[in-house]
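Bench notes, afternoon.
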Amino acid sequence: MTAKVFIDGEAGTTGLQIQSRLAGRRDIELLHLSDAERKDAQRRAAMLNSADVSLLCLPDDAAKEAVSMIEDKNARVIDASTAYRVNPDWTYGFPEHTATRPAEIAASQRVTNPGCYACGAVSFLHPLVSAGVLPANHPVTLNAVSGYSGGGKSLIAAFENPQAANATDSNFYLYGLSLEHKHVPEIEKHGGLGHRPIFVPSVGRFAQGMIVSLPLHLWALPGAPKSADIHAALADHYAGRGGAKGVTVSSLKDAAAYKDKLDAEDLNDTDGLTLHVFANDAREQAVVCAVLDNLGKGASGQAVQNLELMLGLN
């Protein structure tokens, strides 16, 4: 049977990406509203209640409003905003997070799609904390860089349209320097941390792609682990969970092939995530890096992966 899917906010960056991934599929019928109907609360509510699954690609307040419109107990939702990412009543939509998470997503009525930065950070924090390699109370610092598409239409215009009101000639800059980035709460919770991490994001003059990195002083961790111990914790956690839409852990031998250069655009136009461990054991230092496409595993690709799990689709 064909599943009915409604994208609320299909005109935004994430919505358009999801739509392009689902277009032409015979196992899914995409429900649409005209431009005028999108502003009609009754028409939106009708769509949200008639779809098998609705994907919300909206700002937080609008996402909450959309959820409040749902009265049909069988109507299911994937929310791409930050509104429900730390809500215990919603399933965190990172299928590789735990061995049972795919089944939990498949059975859930309410799934919250991870943030792009959070997806990268949680992908290495959770396994390291769970394995006891990284203490939950360790003072964690995370650095990250993303392509400008992660900021949506406004930031895309800033980099691509010189006539935009917020146009920028910067090639690279740090932001979130108030240390209140919206992804931090979910990184702390789903990464298994006991304290807020310091998170320093940045954006570069490239459209898409992302690196999230965790620097580690190995001598400061319990037992002074080696790089092989860091790698083993990650590899053991993700054994059998890789593939086109999963998490892959590159080998320590592969690290040498990068020759001190890791490109944020390495996984562009894919829906996977790759973890790397770079280390200098003699200096007792390591850096764990997650590379992903902020539009793929970091947003639309992840939403489609969750949708497929919820609908039992291949």
